Amino acid sequence: MLKLDLIQTLAFAGLALYAGHFLRRLVPLLARYNLPAPVLGGLLVALLVTLGRRFEVTLFAFDTTLQSPLMIAFFTAIGFGASFALLKRGGPQVMLLFLCASVGAVVQNILGVALAQPLGVHPLIGVIGGSLTLAGGPATGLAFAPLFEQAGIPGAATIAIAAAMAGIIAASMLGGPLATFLIERFQLKPSRPSLENAAALQPEAPAPARTAPAHDTEAAVLLKSVTILLLVMWLGAWLSSGFQALGVTLPAYIGAMVVAAVVRNLDDVTGKFGLPHRTLAALGTAALTLFIVLALMTLRLWELAGLALPLFVILAAQVAMMALACLWPMFRLMGRDYDAAVAVSGFCGFMLGTTANAMANMETLVERYGPAPRAFLVVPMVGAFFIDFSNALILTTCVHLFQ
């Protein structure tokens, strides 16, 4: 048995990550369906551990001390993205899509819980097959898994990653065809905004970046970002402790996410903190990547067998519901035009899979039919930032209701 300390475990996770990238290049179908490299690399290690267990051999012993801090760092970065100014900048359609996504997350959980009872499984299995892994994706699924296990769902992380993988594949297979049907059924054409308007509607990144002063070197910006991130995580831990003292049990990262959102909005108003948004987002992405690999490396895949059929039924119903929602209310609510059809494919992408699925769906459509700048403004903001914030609150409520 190879016993690794926390640094060696983190290094091993890095190797597993690049093994995932290698698999994406080796098997193009994996890249086509936007299966994330961290998920592939972590699952590869989990499969090796499961294979070793079959022959009564323990291959690795990992030190997962850093797993929780990395998860909290990721959701802290999400908190920095929760900007009211950004919502206003996106216009009414961003707020509308955010509201629809939040309502959609609630409906996913209602459907999952409603199906769980006749299938003879715990209601929280329905939530795992609902917004935890569909609107939330693999990161949210793995982050909440310990809370679900405490609420009586053994092997929650394994169930979550299976549901998330199925959702990612469904998001890639469903989003494009749905939008194509709408475009061709209603003979929709892209609008022809001027280049100036298109540039204004399609920013380089979902969150506006603050330009660093000329005297700030790259190292100084990075140091400032790391310091801010750690301070907010520290303050968030205090806030979480305060909730616990009041008898309110919340996921470990909620305090940091709330503090980060407050700091972000204060900075939007006052400009006092000078938050380096791009660097904070990059740190959050790095933390998420390593967190996913670490969490997946310790999955107990053998715990999934008994739930295969109930989980399949719940996920099949979720996919059918999403298809109906996209074809009717979402398309109408988003404007019934070409941009609305493209946005629908993105909505399907991040509500069943990840923001990467959403962007891949939309990029495929615009390559064929033409530009959709409004869709590319609205979808990334909601899919990459705002839905994670509201979904965390929805999931916390579900755990308290059904534990």
Task: Summarize the structure in words.
There is one protein chain. The protein is 76% helix and 1% strand. The chain has 403 residues and is mainly α.
Strand fraction band? under 5%
Low-confidence stretches: 194-211
Tell me the Rg in angstroms.
21 Å
- What's the SSE pattern? EHHHEHHHHHHHHHHHHHH
SS-based class = mainly alpha
Q: Mean pLDDT, rounded to whole units?
A: 88
Helix share, percent: over 70%
Question: SSE layout and pairings?
Answer:
Elements: E1 2-3, H1 6-26, H2 28-32, H3 37-54, E2 60-61, H4 67-80, H5 84-90, H6 92-119, H7 123-132, H8 137-150, H9 156-185, H10 195-201, H11 218-245, H12 254-270, H13 277-297, H14 308-333, H15 338-352, H16 355-369, H17 373-402
Parallel strand pairs: 1-2
Helix pairs in contact: 1-3, 1-13, 3-13, 4-11, 4-12, 4-13, 6-7, 6-14, 6-17, 7-8, 7-9, 7-14, 7-17, 8-9, 8-17, 9-14, 9-15, 9-16, 11-12, 11-13, 14-15, 15-16, 15-17, 16-17
